[in-house]
Specification:
The protein has one domain (2-280): Luciferase-like domain (TIM Barrel, Alpha-Beta Barrel). Helix 1 (16-29) runs parallel beside helix 9 (272-280), helix 2 (53-62) runs parallel beside helix 3 (81-95) and helix 3 (81-95) crosses helix 5. The strands form three sheets. It has a nine-stranded parallel β-sheet. The protein is of the alpha/beta class. Helix content is 33%, strand content 20%. It has helices spanning 16-29, 53-62, 81-95, 109-112, 122-140, 181-186, 212-223, 250-255, 272-280; strands spanning 2-7, 33-36, 68-71, 74-75, 101-104, 145-148, 153-157, 171-177, 191-196, 233-239, 244-245, 248-249, 260-264. The radius of gyration is 18 Å and the shape is globular. The chain is built from nine helices and 13 strands.
Length: 284
């Protein structure tokens, strides 16, 4: 099971210099990946420092040599899929083929969508997500793309160059349990990142982590529907520095099917040095 640092793009990590230091420490410590949240307004009127995800991912790609990296999770409904495809292809080229792309509906809908006059309906965002993924997939594979959908229409579009990875970079899908839509959506793609909808404070990261039972059930649902020869990743989660989640160890989640473990990093401005210290200690 590979291990990665999972970091917000706001708070302390909205600072480019601190993000660069985190990237260097993550690679030097022997982690396999560094993945970034994709938000533009999650803190609302609080006004936390926030860095643009594509700019930040460019820094991560440039300051590392072997880390897998990417946006986890991009709310595709608020992006033009062709512009995003161009950015992702460029990042995969820049990094020599290390990009992973994560997609989902995005939260919170009021701050990230409605605040800008964009459609906040979950049903509409889900349809735009599915159409956007189809468009992005075609463009990233280098196909001549003609697409006619409810929300997106393309005529004779052909992107070059293609990504370094073939047939394109991996696409992981977020699933908010207990809802099944994300799990089902992931069957068409390359990975699943399951979280749970918090019943308590959403700023306590542990409230987002699935129990071992819920994680195993999501993995089983996917595995029962996949062909045996299809490579597929499953992401389990824990707080940075913790050796267990919801009473179960990393090994328990690995045995349940996890191929990646995400160490979630706090966004608070008073934890920067403590975070660097924990990251420098290396994978668990």
């Amino acid at each position: 099971m590979k291990q990665a640092i999972y970091v917000p793009n706001f708070g302390d990590w909205g600072n480019a210099d601190k993000l660069i230091e985190l990237t260097r420490r993550t690679e030097d410590a022997g982690f396999d990946g560094l993945f970034l949240w994709d938000h533009i307004n999650i803190t609302g009127a609080d006004g936390f420092d926030t860095i643009d995800p594509t700019v930040a991912l460019t820094l991560i790609a440039s300051e590392s040599s072997h880390l897998k990296f990417g946006p986890i999770i991009t709310p595709l409904a608020r992006r033009r899929p062709w512009k995003l495809a161009r950015e992702l292809i460029s990042l995969d080229q820049l990094s020599g083929g290390r990009l992973v792309f994560g997609a989902g509906l995005g939260e919170p809908e009021d701050l990230e969508f409605a605040a800008f006059g964009e459609e906040a309906s979950g049903k509409v965002r889900a349809k735009k997500l599915d159409e956007g993924l189809e468009v992005l997939d075609s463009l990233a594979r280098g196909f001549l793309t003609n697409y006619s959908g409810q929300y997106y229409n393309l005529t004779n579009v052909h992107f070059r160059p293609r990504p370094v990875q073939t047939p394109r970079f991996p696409v992981w899908i977020a699933a908010t349990l207990p809802y099944k839509s994300g799990v089902k959506r992931s069957l068409k793609w390359d990975g699943l990142f399951p979280v749970v909808m918090p019943k308590a404070d959403p700023l306590v990261w542990a409230n987002w982590f699935p129990t071992l039972e819920d994680f195993r059930a999501a993995v089983g649902e996917v595995q029962n529907s996949l062909s045996e020869d299809k490579g597929f990743d499953f992401v389990a989660s824990g707080n940075l520095g913790d050796k267990s989640t919801k009473g179960h160890s990393l090994e328990d989640y690995k045995n349940a099917g996890a191929t990646w473990w995400f160490h979630w990093v706090d966004e608070s401005p008073d934890t920067f040095r403590e975070t660097i210290k924990k990251v420098s200690a290396g994978p668990l």
